[in-house]
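Suppose a colleague, Dr. K., hands you the sequence of a protein chain of 310 amino acids and asks what its three-dimensional shape might be. Before reaching for any lab equipment, you can write down a predicted structure in token form. Begin with the sequence itself:
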Amino acid sequence: MIKTMLTTIRREFRVMGTDAQIIVVTEDVHEGEDDLGHAEEDLRETERELSRFQEDSDLARLNREGRLLAGERLLATVRATARAHALSDGLLDPRVIDSLEDLGYRHALPNGEVKRTGEPSPLRPVDMGTWIDERTGEITLPPGVRLGLAGVGKALGIGWAALRLAGRHAGILVDVGGDLVALGHDENGELWRVSVNHGGVVGELADSPLAVATSTTMRRAWKANGRSVHHLIDPRTGEPSRGRFAYATVAAPTIIEADLAAKLLILEGREALRRFGGELRAVVTDRGGNTELLAAPEQAATRSEDGATG
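The predicted structure, expressed as tokens, is then:
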């Protein structure tokens, strides 16, 4: 029997404000290179439509105008965000953009200490599902409301790029800022293996398919008014979360579940796991540097329908 020769090819670049890589394990290098290009362009298209920092993006237009006949990606992302908001009882709230900007995170991550421009305040309950007209695809925001969709948008973007590659090669991996989807196997026929880095390697996750996301208070962090702050805002206070965990890495059936669970572990601690199905695994490190492995209870909530792949 002739053994098929597999080659690993990769492409590294920056997108969505972070480092990204796409890996393809393939028999056909030419086809693999073409597919890498298509997948990279897919990620860039997600950024063009969903970035709050690009003035011509669909999201920036929605935030300026308050009403927009949404493109396919923005509509899918707002739908997924509304479901995440409901799943989390409001803890995952895209309106925290105002708190972030008050803390100085406006056009880019602050470099050095900044002055806070507003006072923290909790967000009022809202039903985000009423903002979407499913007949027309139009999104209408309440007066004064703006959205930040970075987390959900990145997760969905990874899933969409992976779908472009799924089934075309022996193995694929799409990694954006350490959040990733891996399908198939590596060139040795082994499961994909991913190191868990919490300021240093604290473990490893191996599976196929594999969807992994990490959330932390330690990376997108800066100082405002002499205090250390970060980008994970608790909508109950309008302040950066002060929970037990500093890092949470989650492996889940879909990338959107992994992303939501990682953020919720930071915001509400281990209680977050009750919201998810039993296939979820998490590695968490607390503020004292202690690491442990957690698993969701089997009787937890129904799986999210978003995110496409895992």
